[in-house]
Amino acid sequence: MQNKRQKGDVNAVMISIIMHLALFVLLILSSLYHNVDIMGGGEGDDGEVIGAVMVDTGSAAQEWGRIQQQKKGQAEKQKKQSLEDKKQEEQAQKQEEQKQQEQKQQEALKEEQQRQEEIARQKALEQQKEQEKQKLLAEQKKQQEEKARLEALEKQKQAEEAKAKQAAEAAKLKADAEAKRLAAAAKQEEEEAKAKAAAIEKAKQEAKAKAEAEAKVKADAEAKAKADAEAKAKAEAKAKADAEAKAKAEAKAKADAEAKAKAEAKAKADAEAKAKAEAKAKADAKAKAEAEAKAKADAQRKADQNALDDFFNGGDVGGGSATRGGNANKQGSLGTGASMGAGDGGKTGSAYAGIVYSSIKPYFRGDNRFIGKVCDIKMEISSDGTILSYEKKSGPNDLCAAALNAISQAKKMRRAPTPEEYQMFKSFTLGFDPRKVR
To answer: In the chain, how long is the greatest CA-to-CA distance?
Structure first.
């Protein structure tokens, strides 16, 4: 609606501007076709006539100012109208939004009310279901109780019927027994009567039969007694034989068990003895190997020390066997060498041994109490003579402590070893003797 109104205002302004421009053009054109004759004064009819066109610029300017003022007023009016329309539109939009908000709130309240009603309905349904469930459970419980009561009545009825049946059977048995007893008594009386009637007639026969019967009974008794005695003797003999067999079996089982236990004990003792023998053999072999290694090391150390003594005393250390100067793995005590001829290893080793002692000598602080003592120290050096590592292997603590302290301060040999010397001294055992550094 506002757009249509603005479009109509624009059209009106354009029409007004076009009309004013047309009016201005008409004024200019009319001035072009209007002639003003200016006559010369006192010249008579012979004077020249000058044609001129006059334009009222003041009127034109006034008209142009009016047009501009009208345009400005219309623009301000249009702007004011636009602001008013915008304000009205904003108010309408705000009212619409407020209306929509109120409608949403009403809808939300309605939805909340419906939700609460649905919750209440669900709760009511749940309560109804719970009541029906409780009612059903109560009914089921009642039915179960009724069923249990009927079952108890049925069991009681069955028990009473069984009891009545047992009583009837007992009465029947009692009646049958009484009838049998009476029949037996009647029969017995009848038989007794017949017996009494025939007693006299049969007296002789009975006496004879009695005598025969007594004789037979006596014979049977004797035979039975004899048979019983024989059977008893056989039974006793069988029992004795069974007891003896059982005793023999138990004795055999006991003997077997004892033999098995003895065999197991013997096997265990043999195994333990074998294990002890093997352990002893291993221990002896180990002790022997250690003793041989120690003896070999002592001999090697002694030989090295002798070589050093010869060197420092100005003796000739060039001699000696390959065993004294050799070392299979190219590592060993001072004075040892690898893959060298007789005497070569001793010369080279003794020469660099002097370098080792002379490198340590300035830092060793010793006294007479160290004389006669030796400390074995394992050392490793680099190809430039730097001491890489050192550790005590054996020897008195006081001397070893002083020697290790001197080595730690020395840090490096006075000169680097030659390749041949390095092969012997890159890892070696120094038998440190205080006499060599005095």
So the answer is: 238
**Which residue, 205, 224, 201, is CA-closest to 213?**
205
pTM of the model as a whole = 0.27
Tell me the domain boundaries of the chain: 289-437
Taking only the tens place, the pLDDT of each residue in 120-163 is 999 999 999 999 999 999 989 999 999 999 999 999 999 999 99
**Rounded to an integer, what distance in angstroms lies between the CA atom of residue 388 and that of residue 425?**
12
What CATH class is the domain 289-437? Answer: alpha beta
Q: Say if residue 334's pLDDT is above 60.
A: no
pLDDT at residue 84, as a whole number: 86
Q: How far apart are CA 227 and CA 217, in angstroms?
A: 15
d(CA 82, CA 310): 128
Per the structure block, which two tokens stand in for 259? 């033999």
**What's the chain's length in residues?**
438
Q: Which residues contact 56 (CB under 8 A, 6 or more apart)?
A: 31
CA distance linking residue 417 with residue 217, whole number of Å? 135
pLDDT tens for each residue of 35-69:
555 555 555 455 554 555 555 677 777 877 888 88
Burial class of residue 279 in the structure, from the number of CB atoms within 10 Å of its CB (0-12 exposed, 13-18 middle, 19+ buried): exposed
61, two tokens: 């300017």
Asked if pLDDT for residue 327 goes beyond 70, the answer is no
pLDDT on residue 364? 92
Give the tokens for residue 365: 């602080």
> Quick count: other Cβ atoms within 10 Å of Cβ 6?
14
